[in-house]
Amino acid sequence: MHPNDAIDQPFSPGYGSLTPKTPGGQLFTIFYALVGIPLTLLTLKAMGNHYNHYIKKLIILIETRCLKRTEVKGLEGKVCLGDITVAILYLFIASILSCTTQNWTFLQSVYAWFITLTTVGFGDLIP
Predict the structure, then answer these.
(1) H-type helices in the chain, by residue range?
(2) Predicted confidence (pLDDT) at residue 9 exceeds the cutoff of 50
(3) Radius of gyration (Cα) for the chain, nearest Å?
(4) Is 5 helix (H, G, I), strand (E, B) or coil?
(5) Which SUPFAM superfamilies match (predicted)?
(6) Distance CA 78, CA 84 (A)
(7) Which of 74, 84, 73 is nearest to 51 (CA)?
(8) Which of 39, 64, 74, 108 has its CA 20 to 30 A from that of 11?
């Protein structure tokens, strides 16, 4: 395992193409992942909270200024829907770009990105 590859370990999909071969490398990977995975989860949580803050502000802005509502009902559900919408848009934009750069069909691109983003990582298609 190359030292630069260790940066990817805490949140890699696990395609199996990068594995530590020596006992020292395997031990390092275990300890690195024990620290790196919780730190990655904390970072993702903080990013999600930050992102949701702006989604909430946008929903409140649209409902109060554009739709002239005095009260925003079902805000948490609308934020969840916004999150799902952005995730789908991200998946589709990445897939469209992969169609041109990887010479894949759109379905292959969506599949490859979905497998990668969910960290399943079968390794049959790698974006």
Answers:
(1) 23-61, 75-102, 106-117
(2) no
(3) 20
(4) helix
(5) Voltage-gated potassium channels (SSF81324)
(6) 10
(7) 84
(8) 108
Residue 91, both tokens = 């998946």
Which tokens hold the place of 53?
A: 């803050």
Residues 6+ apart with CB under 8 A from 64: 70, 72
What does pTM read for this prediction? 0.68
Q: How confident is the model at residue 127 (pLDDT cuts 50, 70, 90)?
A: low
Closest CA to 115 of 19, 14, 18: 14
Residue 59 token pair: 């929903």
Kindly list the domain boundaries of the chain, sorted by start residue: 21-73, 74-126
Q: Is the dihedral of CA 127, 93, 109, 113 positive or negative?
A: positive
- Tokens 């992102």 label which residue? 51
In angstroms, the first-to-last Cα distance of the chain is 21
* Sign (positive or negative) of CA dihedral 49, 52, 56, 61: positive
